[in-house]
Design a protein that fits this description.
The chain is an alpha+beta fold. Helices cover 33% and strands 20% of the residues. The protein has nine helices and 17 strands. It binds 2-oxoglutaric acid (AKG) and fe (ii) ion (FE2). Belongs to the iron/ascorbate-dependent oxidoreductase family.
Length: 364
């Protein structure tokens, strides 16, 4: 059972993309510094207007407010796309609660490719009928906006890592290729019940501690809907940072900042120079006092949270190897398959350990 979270203030670098062509050297230096030392940074002056972001959040909320039966017509598929509801069980959830607890959220994952999205978009007539007209076109346009911002970062990272070709990462993440794997994830976290002693004792996690396994994640959050926390450098004695000092990633209103973080793939692609950083959306909480609810803090936020994440993932056939060749080459497809295997192996291990713990408790 987790104890109260320790919090520390850490500076999360804020990087401006203003005047990108002329400032590319200084932006590259700032990005590489943030990627090496924190793994997280905020991006300002990225060119996506506040109105565009607001409109995308409104569209996402309209989708999530649809009846479950409608959302279930575009169900999650192992192609890493589609809608899921309270189905993502993370190893960290199991380790900290000793139960198979899923994140208390729903999400809808979208990709560029027709094949990946086969049967996973609402039909045009249904978009109109259910009050989300133009949903597919608007989401796709927003993905292209995020792709363009990501490509600027990719050019900087290619330069900073010493690849000869500035477009190296850009080519391997080409959204026009049919084997593109990048994902836009609309997220909706449900209200989290607080420990009160009058409920059924269900323990809720919003998003358990994890690192992202892709290349680079870009995330929008909303003012007043906090919860995202990071644990830089995995400064933790335990696997998922339960005893570590966490830092809240606050919304920065004046810059429309995009929260960016390095994924495991860019970490290995940089020969471990850049770091992927443990993060989570707090908090474990419970309807029954003392069950997970121990981790409550006066600054916690328990209301609904909407966020939008864009996961840059290399095309399936991309060959991935760092400039110093620390790791043998792997394709984008292999990397993701391995990430899945690692995830399920960790889940299996955590589940077995939780079962053993429960048996021990019964025995004494
Ligand atoms: O919603 C958030 O703020 C974080 C989401 C996240 O970390 C993820 O989906 O990987
Ligand atoms: Fe994440």
């Amino acid at each position: 059972m987790p104890g109260p979270t320790k919090y520390v203030e850490r500076e999360i670098p804020q990087i401006s993309l203003r005047d990108f062509p002329n400032r590319i050297d200084s932006i590259t230096a700032q990005l590489c510094d943030a990627a090496e030392h924190v793994g997280f940074f905020g991006l300002a002056d990225h060119g996506i207007a506040a109105a565009e972001i607001d409109a995308m959040f409104a569209l996402s909320e309209a989708f999530f407010r649809l009846p479950a039966a409608v959302k279930a017509t575009v169900p999650w598929s192992p192609r890493n796309a589609g809608w899921e509801d309270r189905s993502q069980v993370r190893p960290s959830n199991v380790v900290t609660t000793s139960k198979l607890v899923a994140d208390n959220k729903e999400s809808y994952q979208l990709q560029f490719g027709d094949e990946a999205m086969r049967g996973l978009w609402l039909a045009e007539d249904d978009e109109k009928r259910y009050g989300v007209p133009g949903f597919r076109a608007r989401c796709t346009a927003f993905m292209h906006r995020l792709q363009a911002v990501s490509e600027q970062l990719m050019v900087c990272f290619a330069r900073g890592l010493g690849f000869d070709d500035d477009e190296y990462f850009v080519r391997l993440h080409d959204a026009a290729r049919p084997d593109s794997q990048s994902v836009l994830r609309l997220l909706h976290y449900y209200d989290t019940p607080r420990g009160g002693g009058d409920g059924d004792g269900e323990v809720c996690y919003r998003a358990g501690a994890h690192t992202d396994w892709g290349f680079l994640t870009l995330l929008f959050q909303r003012e007043g809907q906090g919860g995202l926390e990071i644990c830089p450098g995995r400064e933790s004695a335990t696997e998922f940072g339960a005893d570590a000092a966490w830092t809240r990633v606050k919304f920065t209103p004046d810059s429309n900042s995009i929260v960016c973080n390095i994924g495991n793939l860019l970490m290995s692609w940089s020969d471990d120079r850049f770091r992927s950083t443990l993060h989570r959306v707090k908090a474990p909480s419970s309807r029954r006092e003392g069950e997970g609810g121990k981790d409550e803090d006066p600054d916690d936020y328990y209301g609904e949270r909407f966020s939008i994440a864009f996961f840059n993932q290399p095309c399936r056939s991309a060959v991935i190897q760092g400039p110093k060749k620390k790791y043998p080459p792997v394709t984008g497809e292999e990397f993701i398959a391995r990430a899945m295997d690692t995830h399920f192996a960790a889940l299996k291990k955590a589940t077995l350990e939780a079962e053993v713990q429960q048996q021990q408790q019964k025995a004494y």
